[in-house]
Amino acid sequence: MVGSSEDRNYWQDGLYSVTYLHEGEIDSRRSRTLAVLREGTIVGSDEHGGVFEGLFATTRCGSAAYVVLKLRVPPGGVLVTGERVGETEAVVEVAGVLSNRNGELQGVCDIRGHWMGMRFRYVGRLPH
Q1: Residue 76: domain span
Q2: How many structural domains is the chain composed of?
Q3: What is the pTM of this model?
Q4: d(CA 66, CA 85)
Q5: Where are the alpha helices (DSSP H) in the chain?
Q6: 2 in any annotated domain
Q7: What is the pLDDT of residues 43-78, one digit of tens each?
Q8: Residue 51 belongs to a domain with what CATH number?
Q9: Running DSSP on this structure, what letter comes out for residue 81?
Q10: In this structure, how many other beta carbons lie within 10 angstroms of the beta carbon of residue 1?
Q11: What does 14-45 look like in DSSP terms, one character per residue?
């Protein structure tokens, strides 16, 4: 679970932009997504009306983190994998593992059986 604040020095609370990667390249189907990381929880949304919430937990040494999200996709929505979710709202589970690479949180996630790369880039601090 989430370690002490010293363990989370790479995983600071704040606002992040999220980019999805497909086979090592930035996916052309990506959308603008923002996420807020605060005290082990993560919430966010994309420009198409998808919203997510979940948990963010680091390893004891703080070198890796696990993300588990529930993504709510509006009717007629399309996932970053290209899959259409249908005519009613869908709830999609997303799970991933991230590590710090060059000051960014990068790793892979599973979206309905499709493996995608994901990158979280720190944008700024949250108001207190």
Answers
A1: 14-124
A2: 1
A3: 0.80
A4: 25
A5: none
A6: no
A7: 999 887 889 999 988 888 777 889 999 999 999 888
A8: 2.40.128.380
A9: T
A10: 9
A11: EEEEEEEEETTEE-TT---EEEEEETTEEEEE
